[in-house]
Structure formats: C-alpha cells, structure tokens
Design brief:
The complex is a heterodimer of chains A (552) and B (542). Helices cover 52% and strands 10% of the residues of chain A. In chain A, the strands form 3 sheets. A 4-stranded mixed sheet of chain A has the order 1-4-5-8. A 4-stranded antiparallel sheet of chain A has the order 2-3-7-6, with helices on one face. A two-stranded antiparallel ribbon of chain A has the order 9-10. In chain A, helix 15 crosses helix 18. Among the domains of chain B are: 118 residues, Acyl-CoA dehydrogenase/oxidase, N-terminal domain (Butyryl-Coa Dehydrogenase, subunit A, domain 1), CATH 1.10.540.10; 112 residues, Butyryl-CoA Dehydrogenase, subunit A, domain 2, CATH 2.40.110.10. In chain B, the strands form 3 sheets. In chain B, strands 1-4-5-8 form a 4-stranded mixed sheet. A 4-stranded antiparallel sheet of chain B has the order 2-3-7-6, covered by helices on one side. The chains are: A alpha+beta (552), B alpha+beta (542). Chains A and B meet through strand 9, helix 10, helix 11, helix 12 and helix 13 of A and strand 9, helix 9, helix 10, helix 11 and helix 17 of B. Chain A: InterPro entries: Acyl-CoA_Oxase/DH_mid-dom, Acyl-CoA_Oxase/DH_mid-dom_sf, AcylCo_DH-like_C, AcylCo_DH/oxidase_C, AcylCoA_DH/ox_N_sf, AcylCoA_DH/oxidase_NM_dom_sf. Chain A: Its cofactor is FAD. Chain A: Belongs to the acyl-CoA dehydrogenase family. Chain A: Keywords: FAD, Flavoprotein, Oxidoreductase.
Chain lengths: 552, 542
C-alpha cells in the first residue's frame, strides 16, 4: 500500500528534520539514546536549542509581518510536531512556551513591543509566559501577583509558579492584578524585558522537578517590589483577562497539535519493537489484539490531526469562530493522545517498564504525555468555557454557519489576523455544524440530541459550577467538532480519511468517544489501517495525515 | 457531601490484632520519629533508586515474613487474608517497598502449591526464621509472557542431582533471593510436559554456578531489585524438584492463581492513597469562590473513585474467600481480579490525577512530597507483572463457554438468593486458609459468584448488570473457533466480565449486610456505567 508523499512544502519542516538527524543512530547527539540520557539528568540535549534556532524554529513562531516566517498555524504545528517527535520537552521549552508568550504580545502589544519580542524569538531567544500561581490553578481571575502604579511606571509584587523558561528567558509576559476588586477587569499584562528580569528584586524561584518533561526548566518568578516602566504594559490596563481569552485560542490549538508528535514516535517505536518480539511461535504483530491497539492508535492520531488541522486553519480563515473550536481541541485531543499512549504502553508490557533501549524512550514519552491534558488549561476548564457557546448554538432558530472549504483543503490558508479574534464567538459552530448533517454513525441525531439537552439545562448550567452532565454534553460536543473536521477532510480527498473504510471507522470511534465508550474496530478497518501504518513506518514517513519524510 | 464521607470511610481497614495492623502501627510510629518509613526518607530513597534495605530489616524484625507462609505451616494465622492486608498496608506506604518485600510470597507459592511436606516445612523455616528472600525465576530475555518457550534447562545426573543452565531475566529480587523457584525444561520434548519447577537454595550452589545479572533500570518502582540470574552448571540436590517432574508449567499456572489475587492488593492500595491525597486537596482547595470538592465535576470524580474502591475491595474479598472454599474456580476468579482491579484502579487514578493537576506531576520539593506522582508512576507495573492484563484475559476467554454454560444451568435452577454464596464472605471474614491443593487449571464450575446477578428485573443497577451479564455470556458462547477467541471483541467480553465480577461481589456483600444499600448502589451503578462503556457491538452502540 503506498500513498503519495505530499509535495506541499512547509517552511522549516525539512530543516528541523535535517538538524535532528536519524533518531535511531546511537552516535547522533540528538538521537533517542542521547536525548534520553540527558532527559534523565533533567536537561535538553546540549546543542539542541542552537541547532533548532539555525533550522529556523524561532522564526517559525513569529509572523512574517514581525520578522519571522509564520503564516498559518497549521504550518507552525507541523514544524513543532517535528521537534515533538524527537523530544516533547524541547518542543515545549523552545517552541510552545515562547509561542504562548508571543501570542500575548501579538494580540495585545503595540508595534514596538511586537517588533522587539518578534526579533528576540526569531533569533532563538526564549520567552516565558507567567500566568500560573499554584494557589489558583485555572482560576485566572483569582490570581494574586499585584502591580500598583508608581509614578510613570508600576511596582510588581508576588509570585508566579511552575513557569517554563522563567529562569532562562529574554522576555516574560506577566499576568498581574491591578485592581483589588474581584472580576474580569482587574488584571493587566506586563512585558518584562531583560533589564527588569535582571533587577535584584526579580528573583527566580528554585526549579520544580517533574515526573516528565524533565528537560524543561520549570521555575518561577518572585517579584518583591520590582519596578517596571510604564511602557511595559501590554494592551489596555485592566483588560488582561480578555487578552488571555483571545490568545489562549491560539495556544489551545498549537500545544495539543504539537504534542501529537509524541504519539507518532510512540507508535513507530511500538511497531518496530513488536515486529521483533517472537511470541507463541510468531511475532507479537501477528496477534489480533496487538494489531487492534496499533491500528486504533493510528486512527486516533489521524482523527486528532484532522481536528487540529481544521481548527488551526480556522485561525486564518475564520478567526471570529476560533474560541470554541480551540477549546474543543484542547479538551479532546489530549484525551485521545493520552489514551492512545497509555494503551500502547500497556501493549509493550515489560518493555515499557524497562528504562533501557527502546523502553527508555517509550517510558519517557508516557511521562511526557501527561501535562498535555492538565497543562495550560485543563479539560474541565475548556469544557466549561464551551458551555455558553453550546447554548447559543443550540437555539432552534440559530443561524446555520457557512463552513469555509479552506478549513479542509491543502492550500495556503494565509496569515492569522489576531485583531479579528473574539472573546465570544458568533453563534454557530463551523465543525459541529458539519457533523449535524451527517447520518453515518448517528451523528445527525446525536448533535440534535445534544442541542436539546443543552437547551433544557439552560443558562444556569453553563458556569464554573456546571453539572457533571453539562460537562458530559460539552465533551460530546467536542467529539462532534472532531467528527465535523474528519468529514470535511474526508470530502476534500487526499488524506487517508478520504478512504471510506477509514472515514467510517473515524466516525464510529468518535461516536464511542462522545460517550466515553470503548470498542474494537471492525476487522476490515483494523487490517486496512495496519497495512497503511506498516507502510508508513517502513517508508520512514510521519504517521499523521500528511506523510512527511522523517528520520524519527 | 458524599465526597467528604467517602474520604473518611476509605482508609485501609485492618483487622484488630492482625499482623497487618501491627505493621501499620509500627510503620506509622517509625515515620513519626524520622525513621526510614518517614516521607522524606522514602522520597529520597526513591530518587536515589535504592532498594528499601532499612525498611526490610525492620519489617523482618517486626515479624513480617509470617505473611508469606501458610497458617498451617506456622505463618500468620489469617493466612492469605493477612498477606493481602500486609501488601495493602505496605503499598499504601510505597509500592516499591511492597513489591520488593512481598516478592517472597510469589517465590514460595510454587512450593505451597506443589512442594512435598518436608520441602514446605523447610521453606517455611527459612522464610520465617532466617528471613530468607525467595524469588521467582519465570521470565527469560526476549520471551515476554510466553512461559512455555523458556530455554533454561535442568539435567538430572545419575546420582539424582540436577544441573541447571540458563538465564532468568527480568526477575524481581533475583540478586537478593537466597531461594529461587525456577521454571526449567527437564525433558527434550517440546511443550508444557517437558517443564519442571526447581527450588534453588543459594546456600547449596557454589559461586560459579549462579551469576547475578545487574539491576535493570525501570520506569516505576525504581528502587526495586529487578535483576536477573544466570546459571551455568549449577548443581542442585535431588530434593530441589518441586512436585512431579514434568509438571512445571502446571505448578506455575496454579501458583499464579494465588499470587494474582494477592497482587491486586497493590492496586487497591494505590487507589486508596490517591483518593485520600486528592480528596484532602479538593476539600482544602479554594477555587472560583468555593472549594474544589464542591464543584459537581470534582465531586463526581471523588465519588466515583470511592465507588471504584468498594468494587475492587469487594472483588478481592470474594476472591480470597474463593481460594479457601472454591479453589477450583480460581483460574477464572483470580484472572478476572488480576485483570479487572488494576484496570479499574488505573482509570480512576487517571481521573484523580486530572483533578490534582500540576501537583500530581511534581517530584518531591517544597510544593509536593511527590507521593502522588510516584504512586501513579509505580502503579503502571501492576497491570504488567505477574501476568499482564492481556495474558489474564486470554486465560478467561478460553473458559468463557464453560462459565456461560454453568451460569445458564444455575439460572435455570431458579434465581440465586445468594445464600449458597455467603460462604465466600464467611471464609474471608473467618480468615479461612487458602486451599493450595484444590486449585485446578480450568474451572469446571465456571464462576459461581456471577449467580448473584441473574435477575434482569431486579431494581436499580443490579438489574442492569444482570442483563449485561447475560448478554456477555451469550456472546461468549458464540465464540466457536480459536480465531474468534483471539479477536479483540472476545477480549472486550472479558473486560466486561471483570466489572461484572466486581459488581457481583458488591451485591453479595450488600445482601450479607457488609455494605449499606446506598453505598452498594453507588458502586453497582458505577459498574453498570462502565460495563455499558464497553459495548458488545460498536456499530450499534455508536
């Protein structure tokens, strides 16, 4: 079984693959073995950040208009995923975290701030995004670090905890309380440059060590009356929560989208390891139960990539609609990813538990996968943020949105205009609407039933204290969004989802996922997907929708 | 709040005056006075990937090894029930310690199953008096769970002594165990009949005959001695043979029926600890102007974890009772428990981890003692070792037709009141000893406990579960060929049956008055939901 290798170039992807080299080469300083050794010691492979900068990773984060090469988020995701296939910690520290910081500057900064930070990142400097306080978790408006006006500037006091890159950055975005009163207009964003970060009143907290993502330096900032100039405010004072809600729309796609690289590598390693393991007179790959886990994980990867792809393209094509779509990705894709990684880990059995050879990489990936689900915004946070949108979409007289075909094709989708991002999206859901018209696997009836359920719950059940049943409805809705993405991509042809067998399997799998059910694939789908998977691994092609050449 | 009650209800219950209670008290006292059981010492030992030598020395001195020896040979009076509780107590402290310490039971189990009286008395003495560590040499490099494929050989010399050659790896405590039960090939013919179990006593072998292999670095249980051993021309006395020649695989499979039931205690302990840690956090955590535990989603996660605990604890209790009263059913029961308990526990550990957020991911430091991250990491091995979930499920699939037929026959005889099954619970309550001689490779009686779920018209979740059971078994009877039985759909049936077994145990305990109605109903409705989440026909369910 062969597929056509996609000829569409993604700027930076080939260069990143080239500097990473052959993952299986024991002598490669950026191969799995070397990366695993350094990860054990809690650091990235020496030289890796510099090499990735040379390959253009920093430039890939910043739009063309601000000195980089970023156009659509789909291209960025593919570049970050290449890094993630090799080392999720490197992708987080060198790609996703600086992008999250950049997103704030991009959305709220003035021309000078954008140019300054854009230049820094394109040159390979790191940035930190300092929102998190341990005592407040995902409750943004409760954050306590305070900024009070002082002459022309501000004085910042408080702590930001478990922050990636905080001790090692040229710029940091800090979310600070500027009004004592509770509510959404009491916080402002500040851009701290190297001069401020070098002030003795801006201390770095000791490193937090974690079970996974060990190469990421998680520290924090302890600001003790630290003076900050007046022009360090990002955007309008008091509007930080709104800025956050807009720039999270970008990061909620990019983070899970990048992390799918981890599943790609895990699946590749599993195929290779199981092929070589003889069991009961054959290889482990002959057992139907083994084939099922591999084929299902491959399908999961394709489905999740379809979801990410359509939403990443919506950032350019329909930015007004991005919020609920991005929340859907952040709620569902990590769940799919972690589930698949765990099942592969179990399948590999004792090989997964040993920390030598392939096992070392596999167990690293299992550990590295976890923060994808609770990091940045937890699943519950994303589901809660979807509830008001669901209610708007559920109105019987609601407008049927026009779904742009460009979400699903392979054209250049163009740059992202962040000024069009909205805190509250217009009624209508570009992806769930596509699923609502689909009878296969009962999607049309399911979406209608979800809408009726949401209407019956009403406005009272759309808040942070939402009932568990309301969250279940929101979760099912994210599956409808993913199903809509799969349908759109399937109709657009070209990817494996265009195959009727794969399309049907994807729709059934998402229908099961919508109820958090599990059931095996049909035998025909399993064998077809496995053939496709083995051919991809054999040909050293990536395992997501577009088979890119890879040395992972 | 249901969740509040649940936290206080769910601390490990140990029987007054039992070995487990005495160990729990001593561990708590040691931890409080800065001994090796203290949280910092435990965290530091894990970080350094060190074996818990200090803890083991104390446990030996406190009489711990009695847990590994049957009551009739002078071991703990509560036999396997005491052992289960001891594993649970140790694992609630630290899974590495439980795995490292309690391996001696696994190493000795083949002797309890098939050894001669003198051999049993000798091993009991060595374990209890000399605190000998016993280890179990089953797996070989590159062979995974395929036990019959081993290449370790034992030849009998004309003088009756055995000469052992081969490599066992990875093996828990291989380099610490004075005693090692080894599955070896003793005849040239292929297949199970060519295998025997031999008891190696390190004191009998010269230094050349037994070479320890280095400790493997593992993902979890980092301090455990997961190592190996290579035998070259190791000479064992004639009496080293355990049971009859040619019964090696049989002895091993029977011993696994007992060890698997005990291993499930690790999952019970992990879920207990996780529920406690996250429950305390959720009740203290202020969020969105309220407490985390008061948010409906968080309350559901905690309540479900508590219900899952009732399911796994109940299933383990009936399994322990089965080992005493219906040991011939253990081939089904212990496989259901060994596959079902870690799977259910892991699912709820994952949900609790989501609730706990970044804290659950932090290594020991100022914010966290690292306990949650450690137990979540360590628990993953429970589904792998002592027979993986896949291996146990395959063992049940093969017996599904018999389980279904026996269930149908009992059903035809009228709905079970459960009276005939109450002896399972009585055996657990009375701490009746395991009947090592009564185990069989296949269960002719199927699984009698399932008989409490025969009435689909029963009110509440019990009725739903009875319907699900009958559908599961009907599908099981339709598995005609070997190929059918290898299909993932067949494996899915067993996954359902595991939950149904645990639910049946809860229902039995409810009828016996061991569990209050509302609490039992919570557990049963969780089980019903989770069985429904494993539909028989994906196309229809979707």
């Amino acid at each position: 079984m062969t597929e056509l290798v996609d000829a569409r170039p993604v700027d930076g992807l080939a260069a990143v693959e080239a500097v990473l080299g052959d993952a299986t080469d024991l002598g490669n300083p950026f191969g799995h073995a070397a990366i695993g050794t350094h990860d054990d010691a809690g650091r990235l492979a020496p030289g890796l950040p510099q090499a990735l900068t040379v390959a253009g990773l920093g430039a890939a984060l910043v739009p063309e208009a601000h000195g980089g090469r970023l156009r659509g988020l789909d291209g960025l995701v593919r570049v970050l995923r290449a890094v993630d296939r090799r080392d999720p910690a490197a992708a987080l520290a060198l790609g996703v975290t600086p992008f999250m910081a950049w997103a704030n500057v991009w959305v709220a900064g003035d021309a000078g701030q954008r140019d300054a930070v854009g230049r820094l990142l394109a040159a390979g400097e790191r940035a930190a995004c300092a929102y998190h306080e341990l005592d407040h978790g995902n409750d943004l408006t409760a954050n306590a670090l305070t900024a009070r006006p002082d002459g022309d500037g501000w004085v910042l006091t408080g702590r930001k905890e478990v922050i990636s890159n905080a001790d090692f950055c040229a710029a940091a975005v800090v979310f600070a309380r500027t009004e004592a009163r509770p509510g959404p207009r009491s916080h402002s964003l500040f851009l701290l440059d190297a001069a401020v970060l070098g002030d003795p009143r801006a201390r770095t907290l000791p490193r937090y060590r974690t079970a996974g993502m060990r190469g990421v330096r998680l520290t924090g900032l302890d600001l003790d009356g630290c003076p900050v100039p007046g022009d360090a405010v990002l955007g309008t004072p008091g509007r930080a929560t709104e800025t956050a809600l807009r720039c999270f729309q970008l990061s909620r796609v990019v983070l899970p989208g990048a992390t799918l690289g981890l599943l790609d590598t895990m699946l590749r390693l599993a195929v290779t390891a199981l092929r070589g393991r003889s069991l009961y007179g054959g290889t482990a790959l002959d057992l139907p139960a083994t084939r099922e886990v591999l084929a299902a994980a491959f399908l999961d990867l394709l489905v999740a990539d379809a979801h990410v792809r359509a939403v990443a393209r919506a950032a350019s094509a329909a930015p007004e609609h991005l919020g609920p779509l991005a929340s859907g990705v952040k709620a569902l894709v990590p769940e799919i990813l972690v589930g698949a990684v765990d099942r592969l880990g179990l399948l590999l059995g004792s090989q997964f538990f040993l920390r030598d050879g392939t096992g070392a990489t596999v167990q690293k990936l299992v550990r590295d996968a976890r923060p994808t689900s609770f990091g940045h915004a937890s699943q519950v946070t994303c589901l809660v943020s979807l509830l008001p949108h669901l209610l708007r979409c559920a109105r019987p007289d609601g407008p049927a949105p026009t779904v742009p075909a460009v979400l699903f094709d392979a054209t250049d989708v163009g740059p992202v205009d962040v000024s069009r991002l909205r805190v509250a999206a217009p009624a209508g859901d570009l992806l769930a609407a596509r699923a609502a018209g689909e009878p296969a696997a009962g999607w049309d009836a399911r979406v209608a039933a979800l809408a009726a359920d949401v209407r019956a719950r009403g406005l009272a059940d759309t808040r942070v204290d939402a009932s568990a049943a309301a969250l279940d409805a929101a979760h099912a809705w994210t599956c409808a969004q993913a199903a809509g993405a799969c349908l759109g991509l399937s109709d657009a042809g070209r990817t494996p989802l265009a195959d009727p067998l794969v399309r049907a399997a994807a729709l059934t799998r998402l229908a099961l996922q919508a109820r958090r059910h599990e059931a095996p694939l049909t035998r025909a789908a399993r064998e077809h997907l496995l053939d496709l998977l083995l051919a991809r691994v054999e040909g050293r092609l990536t395992l997501d929708l577009d088979p890119d050449p890879t040395l992972a | 709040m249901t969740a509040v009650t649940a936290v206080t209800e769910m601390t490990a219950a140990t029987r007054p005056g039992s070995l487990a209670e005495s160990l729990a008290d001593r561990i708590a006292a040691d931890a409080a006075t800065g001994g090796p059981f203290g949280p910092d010492a435990t965290a530091a030992r894990d970080e350094a990937e060190r074996f818990p030598d200090d803890e083991v020395r104390l446990l030996d001195a406190w009489g711990g090894p009695a847990a590994f020896v049957p009551a009739r040979l002078g071991g703990a009076p509560g036999d396997v029930h005491d052992l289960f509780d001891v594993v649970r107590v140790l694992a609630e402290h630290d899974l590495t310690l439980a795995v490292g310490y309690c391996k001696t039971y696994l190493g000795a189990a083949p002797v309890w199953v098939a050894g001669g009286p003198e051999q049993q008395a000798q091993v009991a003495r060595l374990v209890m008096v000399e605190h000998a560590v016993a280890s179990w040499g089953l797996t070989e490099p590159g062979r995974g769970s395929d036990l019959a494929a081993g290449t370790t050989r034992a030849r009998r010399r004309p003088d009756g002594a055995w000469v052992l050659d081969g490599t066992k790896w990875p093996v828990n405590n291989a380099s610490r165990g004075r005693l090692l039960t080894v599955l070896a090939r003793t005849a040239d013919r292929p297949g199970p009949a060519g295998t025997s179990v031999l008891l190696v006593d390190g004191a009998d072998i010269g230094p050349g005959g037994r070479t320890p292999l280095p400790k493997a670095r593992t993902h979890g249980i980092r301090g455990a001695d997961i190592s190996g051993v290579r035998f070259s021309e190791a000479v064992l006395p004639a009496g080293a043979l355990v049971g009859q020649e040619g019964t090696g695989l049989r002895t091993t499979l029977l011993a696994l029926q007992f060890t698997r039931m005990v291993t499930a205690a690790l999952s019970v302990a992990a879920l207990t600890s996780a529920h406690r840690v996250v429950g305390e956090f959720a009740h203290a955590r202020e969020l969105h102007g309220t407490r985390l535990a008061r948010l409906p989603h968080a309350a559901r996660v905690l309540a479900d974890a508590a219900a899952a605990l009732d399911l796994v604890v109940s299933g383990c209790r009936t399994a322990l009772g089965t080992s005493a009263t219906r040991p011939a059913e253990l081939s089904v029961v212990s496989a259901l428990v060994k596959a079902g308990v870690p799977t259910l526990a892991q699912r709820h550990l994952t949900a609790l981890a989501q609730l706990y957020g970044a804290r659950g991911y932090l290594a020991p430091g100022p914010v966290s003692d690292g306990r949650f991250a450690r137990l979540e990491r360590d628990h993953r091995i429970v589904a792998i070792f002592d027979g993986s979930t896949a291996v146990n499920r395959a063992g049940v699939v093969a017996q599904l037709p018999v389980v279904a037929a026996r269930h149908a026959a009992r059903h035809a005889a009228g709905p079970a009141a459960g009276g005939d099954l109450l002896d399972l619970l009585a055996a657990a309550r009375d701490r009746r000893p395991a009947d090592y001689g009564g185990a069989t490779l296949l269960s002719r009686d199927g699984c009698t406990l399932l008989g409490v779920l025969t009435d689909p018209s029963a009110p509440g979740a019990a009725g739903v579960l009875a319907g699900a059971l009958s559908a599961t078994l009907e599908a099981g009877r339709a598995l005609r060929t070997v190929a059918d039985r290898q299909e993932p759909a067949a494996v899915q049936l067993v996954a359902r049956l595991e939950l149904l077994y645990l639910a049946a145990a809860v229902e039995l305990r409810r009828r016996a008055g061991e569990l209050a109605d509302d609490r039992a109903e919570r557990a049963l409705s969780l089980a019903a939901r989770q069985v429904q989440a494993l539909p028989l026909d994906a196309e229809v369910a979707a």
